[in-house]
Design brief:
The complex is a heterodimer of chains A (461) and B (576). Chain A is an alpha/beta fold. Chain A is 52% helix and 6% strand. Chain A is built from 26 helices and eight strands. The longest helix of chain A has 20 residues. Chain B is of the alpha+beta class and 576 residues long. Chain B contains 17 helices and 23 strands. In chain B, strand 1, helix 1 and strand 2 form a beta-alpha-beta unit. Chain B starts with 5 loop residues before the first strand and ends in a 42-residue tail after the last helix. The chains are: A alpha/beta (461), B alpha+beta (576). Chains A and B meet through helix 1, helix 2 and helix 5 of A and strand 6, helix 4, helix 11 and helix 17 of B. Chain B: InterPro entries: BFD-like_2Fe2S-bd_dom, BFD-like_2Fe2S-bd_dom_sf, FAD-dep_OxRdtase, FAD/NAD-bd_sf, G3P_DH_FAD-dep, G3P_DH_GlpA_su. Chain B: Pathway: Polyol metabolism; glycerol degradation via glycerol kinase pathway; glycerone phosphate from sn-glycerol 3-phosphate (anaerobic route): step 1/1.
Chain lengths: 461, 576
């Protein structure tokens, strides 16, 4: 007997318990993660609130403690709505790090935001579609990459931007990033893909006196930005890794989901996550580690995926994902190699380094400063622990632009006070904000690493 | 017609407040006296279950029938106090099938709507039920807030002309020629507004009739009147969880036993309980093993309770009564029915009746019966309307309006406030003044606190039970001083300080039995905060009042720069 049979057959005295069907088949377990233990962990100390960059500049924002454990506890099963202020959270996730008691704040915020968008936000509103378009950056970037030159001109065409702000609520203050004429993946395929990478890795192993068939294999999660915009970062990753004898593969992948989490578009994020987890899980099974050069991508794979989705293999992928420099610092004597290197030319500069919030949450905020401190020919200075304020799509929203810039103020000041006039960060959108606030050119640490360690990197196409 | 008879009701629990409402609605002149706050005794120490009657469907069918009848009444007249959660009687593999069937038959016989649901269906309703729960009977159990219910009954009584005296202890029952003629009452020197200018003084309250509705304390009043009332107080422990592990009342379907119920209550869940006879309703041991045993046993039904955070535990005493000739030895065998003891018939003492036994769910019915009895003493033929007329706060209203926009409150805070205030929400929350959240755990705003202060005076524990402020997971760690601050203006510094002390003491009391795991961290933080920022660890003997004249008025207070000869670091202000 099952519950699909007519109710009239239901005999209350002889209920259909246990014997005739498997309960799990009839009522599948709820997909929602249980946040009760998380709410139990909060003892209200407010460390999260004091670390929140939005609360610092916006007195109307009630802060992460309210958005997370308080709201969760106050809101019961039926009929309780999520407060709309959850859309003012930028998902920087600093509160996770600030909490001394392990409250899964960002998980609570992501869950609440997802519920808010799903159940309370009008699907025909401009805000919904603006957020959807912004969070599906990959789709826009994919289209733009087909006609990169045209896109670069039109996307920053004044009247078009004015129209976008008025109709879509995308701020006209910012300049869209330039699209590369050749995407990273196009370059990668042209170069010979994984076969070529294996050949080069083997050559480098032999040069370094390593076993030619050493088990050094990584799957590169380049993310959207390295693919469509800053392809030089992706190329640098490949060259540096190959130099250390790693074979690189660039598996099928979609957006990490970071902008989707921040906009409460959990269904979109899940669709993309399923592709990413499926392709990464297969490789991890075979002994590959997953490497990301964007700290928000690695954050998503490591923390947000297992906190929000129940997908086969998700825990394994999360446990085997690393940020690109972090991984080399673990497995190679990167510091010694950098100490012996020197850079000249374009990258022989003083850098004003900003650690992205998502890097901070992974404990990576000091790695670039520690690494490049000894590099001859270049200098690096940490511009402090403030948030850049852009938080991905957040600072692109017309109504959030002022908040975003107010948060960034401290970083801009510190960058101006630093010796260098070139910025450095791991995060593509922090880079946009740094550039926007100071006019500096911004580079990725992998680019400097490549310059220091790889001979004649630009000798190949 | 002369003036209506004056009735003195002793006891400010659900029964007393229900009687006061009923009698005053029938036009009688009523004075209610209560030694503590409203709900101070047993009512404030119950698990908040609105019985469907299912619990008594096997052992005590008369009580079961009364329960389902009153359950239906309270859903209508007390909407803002009741949450219809539904309830389940859950059967584990080791529980007796015969008893399960008997329970089902009992429910049907007593007119309690009952359906059998499979284990899988039960888990679909309550995902945290144990995997091996076989099946369950669903019944219309609910959750009820005893504080709000009693406060609303008292408010209704006041609307009908009754006088409600809290913090007023009966010191003697006045008797002349074998007839009770009144009470001698001592008003506590508390700070409540209901002290009637007789702080610490005694008052003789003359009454045409006295109703003793003191539950477990009935024997004490009896003693003063020279009659013997053998109430058999039985203690039970209850533990409050930080969050709701279940949204349905979960009962264990087995004959009798300790630790067999989980009741979702507001933001929390309450575990209950034990049943052990005690000598004195005020002095009895509160022991840690009782709490441990309860969590362990209930984890068989809801495994996640094992590791979940408890925020406090409390003990209550049931006012059980049975006619002495029955002679039950085990308190679980004593009936939950109530008894009306007319001391004229029983002890040849005119002018007083005691009501003993019974339970919270049937408080209104008890009130009706004793009010009928009182009226018959005076030949008054007045109908009872307590079953039809909604309580203040439960008049027609909908919680579905957009209160957040209307009152400028954050969504869950606005919704919570409206659930607590019911139809009074407009009158309380419509304020043009700033309305910050004072208690963030329970989402209580200044407007609601001020309304409670207006209703109950400066006693912050009375404010607490009206609003739930300080009853959340920090147990007042972050809001007790704010609540005390809300007394400013109306009350002077020493009154506010005394009220603050009273609230803090009460909050710490219940936490003593939850000092492990997360609540221990909470307590440590609360202690540090209160000791280091509020000087709560001062020498209690050092009671000198603060010399406010030693402080300057602050920058701009008098148009000046706020110089009082010292800099902010305490050093002399001798230039920058």
């Amino acid at each position: 007997m099952s519950d699909t049979e007519p109710q009239t057959d239901f005999d209350p005295i002889e209920p259909n318990t246990g014997r005739e069907f498997e309960p799990v088949d009839v009522f599948p377990a709820t997909e929602e993660f249980d946040l009760r233990p998380g709410a139990d962990s909060c003892f209200k100390c407010s460390a999260c609130d004091t670390s929140c960059p939005v609360a610092e500049v916006d007195d109307d924002f009630p802060g992460p403690k309210f958005q997370g454990p308080e709201q969760w506890r106050l809101k019961r099963r039926e009929g309780h709505e999520i407060d709309d202020s959850v859309m003012s959270c930028s998902n920087c996730m600093r509160c996770d790090d600030a909490c001394p008691s392990g409250v899964p704040l960002s998980q609570m915020h992501n869950t609440a935001r997802g519920e808010y968008v799903e159940e309370q936000m009008s699907k025909t509103s401009v805000e919904y579609w603006r957020n959807r378009v912004l969070s599906n950056y990959r789709t826009s970037a994919f289209l733009a990459s087909k006609v990169p030159r045209l896109a670069n001109v039109t996307m920053n065409f004044g009247p078009a931007r004015w129209l976008m702000e008025k109709t879509m609520g995308v701020t006209a203050e910012r300049e869209f990033p330039a699209f590369a004429s050749t995407t990273f993946r196009e370059w990668w395929a042209e170069r010979g893909g994984a076969d070529e990478s294996r050949r080069r890795a083997r050559a480098h192993r032999e040069r370094r006196g390593l076993d030619r068939d050493a088990d050094k294999r990584v799957a590169y999660f380049h993310g959207c930005y390295s693919n469509y915009n800053t392809t030089e970062v992706g190329k640098a990753m490949v060259r540096v890794y190959e130099r250390y004898g790693y074979e690189v593969v660039a598996p099928e992948q979609k957006c990490s989901g970071t902008p989707m989490f921040a906009n409460g578009m959990l269904a979109d994020a899940r669709r993309h996550a399923e592709v990413n987890v499926s392709s990464m899980a297969d490789l991890v099974e075979q002994g590959y580690d997953a490497i990301a050069s964007c700290t928000s991508c690695s954050m998503a794979l490591r923390q947000e995926y297992p906190e929000l989705f129940d997908i086969d293999g998700i825990e394994t992928v999360a446990a085997n994902t690393f940020e690109s420099i972090e991984y080399l610092r673990i497995h190679e004597d990167l510091k010694a190699d950098v100490r012996e290197a020197r850079v000249s030319g374009d990258l022989a500069r003083e850098f004003a380094y900003h650690a992205p919030c998502h890097a901070r949450n992974q404990g990576l905020e000091r790695q670039s400063v520690e690494l490049f401190g000894d590099l001859e020919g270049a200098g690096i200075e940490d511009v402090g622990d403030s948030c850049s304020g852009i938080s991905g799509t957040y600072g692109w929203k017309e109504e959030k632009y002022e908040t975003s810039m107010a948060i960034g103020e401290e970083m801009f000041d510190h960058m101006a006070a630093a010796d260098g006039e070139v910025g450095m960060t791991e995060c593509p959108t922090c880079a946009m904000q740094m550039e926007h606030g100071t006019g500096y050119e911004i580079r990725h640490p992998l680019e400097l690493l490549e310059e220091a360690l790889v001979e004649n990197p630009r000798s190949e196409p | 017609m002369g003036s209506p008879p004056h009735i003195a009701v002793i006891g400010g629990g659900s029964t007393g407040a229900g009687i006061a409402r009923d009698l005053s609605m029938r036009g009688l002149d009523v004075t209610l006296v209560e030694q503590g706050n409203l709900t101070h005794g047993t009512t404030g120490r119950m698990h908040g279950l609105l019985h469907s009657g299912g619990r008594y469907a096997v052992s005590d069918r008369a009580s079961a029938r009364e329960c389902i009848e009153e359950n239906r009444v309270l859903r209508e007249i007390a909407t803002h106090c009741v949450e219809m959660t539904g309830g389940l009687f859950v059967k584990r593999p080791e529980d007796d099938e015969e008893y399960f069937q008997e329970k089902l038959r009992g429910c049907r016989t007593c007119g309690i709507p009952a359906e059998v649901v499979s284990g899988a269906e039960a888990r679909a309703m309550e995902p945290h039920l144990a995997k091996d729960v076989e099946k369950a009977i669903s019944v219309p159990d609910g959750a009820v807030d005893p504080f709000r219910l009693v406060v609303a009954n008292a408010a209704s009584a006041i609307e009908h002309g009754a006088r409600i005296e809290t913090h007023s202890t009966v010191r003697d029952v006045l008797i002349e020629e074998d007839e009770v003629i009144g009470l001698e009452v001592e008003h506590a020197s508390g700070a409540g507004e209901r002290v009637h200018g007789k702080e610490g003084g005694r008052e003789e309250i003359r009454a045409d009739y006295v109703v003793n509705a003191t539950g477990a304390w009935a024997g004490r009043i009896g003693e003063m009147a020279g009659v013997d009332i053998e109430v058999r107080p039985s203690k039970g422990v209850m533990t409050i969880m930080n969050v709701r592990q279940v949204d349905t009342v979960i009962n264990r379907c087995r004959p009798k036993g300790d630790a067999d119920i989980v009741v979702p209550h507001e933001t929390t869940a309450i575990l209950g309980t034990t049943d052990e006879e005690v000598e004195d309703p005020e002095e009895y041991p509160e022991e840690r093993w009782e709490v441990d045993m309860m969590i362990e046993t209930l984890s068989e039904l809801v495994p996640m309770l094992e590791d979940a955070r408890t925020i406090r535990s409390f003990w209550g005493v049931r006012p059980l009564y049975e006619p002495p000739e029955v002679g039950s030895t085990d308190p679980t065998d004593i009936t939950r029915d109530y008894f009306l003891l007319d001391h004229a018939e029983r002890d040849d003492l005119e002018g007083m009746t005691s009501i003993v036994g019974g339970k919270f769910t049937t408080y209104r019915m008890m009130g009706e019966e004793i009010s009928d009895h009182v009226c018959s003493q005076f030949g008054i033929d007045a109908e009872c309307h307590t079953a039809e007329i909604p309580l203040p706060g439960s008049e027609d209203f909908t919680v579905l309006r957009d209160y957040m926009d209307e009152f400028g409150l954050r969504s869950p805070i606005g919704r919570r406030s409206v659930e607590r205030l019911g139809s009074r929400a407009d009158e309380v929350l419509n304020t043009s003044d700033p309305n910050p959240t004072v208690c963030t755990c329970e989402g209580v705003t200044r407007a609601e606190i001020q309304d409670a202060i207006a209703g109950s005076g400066s006693d912050l524990n009375a404010v607490r039970i009206r609003t739930r402020a300080s009853m959340g997971n920090c147990q007042g760690g972050f809001c007790c001083h704010r609540l005390a601050g809300e007394l400013h203006g109306e009350y002077d510094e020493s009154t506010a300080r005394a009220a603050w002390d009273g609230l803090l003491e009460e909050r710490w009391k219940g936490q003593r039995h939850a000092l492990w795991g997360e609540q221990l961290s909470q307590a440590a933080l609360n202690y540090a905060l209160q000791a280091t920022t509020q000087n709560r660890d001062r020498d209690p003997a050092d009671g000198d009042p603060v010399d406010f004249s030693a402080f300057d008025g602050g920058v701009g207070a008098d148009g000046g720069s706020g110089t009082a000869g010292v800099a902010t670091d305490g050093g002399p202000r001798d230039g920058d």
